[in-house]
From TrEMBL:
Pfam families: DsbB. The chain crosses the membrane at residues 9-29, 41-61, 68-86, 111-135. It comes from Alkalicoccobacillus murimartini. Belongs to the DsbB family. BdbC subfamily. This is Probable disulfide formation protein. InterPro entries: DiS_bond_form_DsbB/BdbC (IPR003752), Disulphide_bond_form_BdbC (IPR012187), DsbB-like_sf (IPR023380).
Length: 139
């Protein structure tokens, strides 16, 4: 019985992480006025549905959702890692998919010399992926 609660806990933490990332993203764009680049939009496309489906899964204690949510979060890890690389390694910017609007290598924030918005997304997607893997079916 305790392990069922453990799985629910990991689902809940995954959902809270997705909500914090979603609201953080909206804060940066709507309150601070930072216009998202193309790569930021791809990350939003992957994160925003996670906030909804993980919330429903946590409410219903449905660990089976991980077969749908885990691919989104793993793709999000890759997307965020690529975006972060574009910011930290300027030589990669020539291969960037961003051709119009805000350049993907622009850093609106750079806390401690390494924490940028794509880094925050990378951490959130990584946490969600790990928590979903820890949520085990049938426990």
């Amino acid at each position: 019985m305790a392990s069922i609660k453990r799985s629910n806990f990991f689902l809940y933490v995954s959902w809270v992480t997705a909500m914090i990332a979603t609201f953080g993203s909206l804060y940066f764009s709507e309150v601070r006025g930072f216009e998202p680049c193309d790569m930021c939009w791809y990350q939003r496309i992957l994160m925003y549905p996670l906030a909804l489906i993980l919330g429903v899964a946590a409410y219903h204690s449905d660990v089976k959702i991980k077969k749908y949510a885990l691919p989104l979060s793993i793709i999000g890890v890759g997307t965020s890692l690529y975006h972060y690389s574009l910011q930290k390694f300027p030589s990669l910017a020539t291969a960037s998919p961003c051709s119009e609007g805000v350049p993907c290598n622009m850093q609106y924030i750079n806390w401690f010399g390494f924490v940028t918005i794509p880094f925050l997304a990378l951490v959130a997607f990584s946490f969600i992926s790990v928590f979903l893997m820890l949520a085990r079916k049938g426990e």
